[in-house]
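Worked Example 4.2. Consider the chain below.
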Amino acid sequence: MNNRREFITLLGGAAATLPLAARAEKSGKIARIGYLSTANPRTVPFFQAFGQRLRDLGYIEGQNIIIEYRNAEGEADRLPDLAADLVRLDVNVIVTATDPATRAAKRATATIPILMVAINYDPIALGYIDSLARPGGNITGLFFQHLELLAKRFGLFKEMLPSVGRIAVLSDSFTADQLNAVEAANRSVGLELQPLNLQNPPYDFENAFRVTMRSRADAIFVLESAPIFRGRTQIAQLAMKNRLPTSFAFREYVEVGGLVSYGVNFSTMYRRAADYADRILRGTKPVDLPVEQSTKFELVINLKTAKALGLDVPPTLLARADEVIE
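Applying the procedure from the previous section yields the following structure tokens:
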């Protein structure tokens, strides 16, 4: 896939028509969006992009739209009850991000539209939709699976650290397929990999780094799951403390001190999700909205971190970076 290509544009004419926000304000009706998650979306940077895009489309929270947040606080077994609560409120659309949240929403309702931001799970394989072009049922949204980028990210990390010999791979029970992909990518590279399997969230990242240092790893390659993402700041701090170069899937890690990331831009996905929400609120059925797959990926390098670690980033890699944090 070409990492410079933009998202496929499926909703191009949406903003040109009169949005529901304007009609709702005139009629006095208030639209309701339910947001179902395993973590507090108000603390997640990229969710702000969803709210900002809604404001751009004319929605003002408390005036013509209400967002009902339901947060499982990391306990996935609470999601079915929270989903049922949103159904009782008769929200106009339920927005989900994780696989457990989408599953809970699907089981709770077959009529209320569900707008998923499917990250690192396959909604077709799991039976949530029939296909990207024709989702069927009451679910649509956006889809990105990091698995497809792992070989490229692994190669970029090796390019950044040409003399590296041993890499620790931080994983958990949600990332077995990602670990397999890294091991497959390494067959043509020949590095020594040290898998570090985290057990039972909340994870003991400090112990994982102690094991990494005892194994004399030169760097750490972090696989992606929701529990690992929640620990991104601690991971970046521990990596800096132990002077370990790190590779991540998303820029949010690099923004808190990680070294390099290669993956999709979450904020872009959530802005597109707001466009989908607008279409649904204006009456378009999920069955008529093809699921959009991310096709634009970004390389982000934290040069400040590189300098603190005493690393010289290859100029060719800096030239290809979409953003360099200094």
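The domain at 147-263+298-325 is CATH 3.40.50.2300 (Rossmann fold). The longest strand covers residues 31-37. Compare this with Example 4.1 before moving on.
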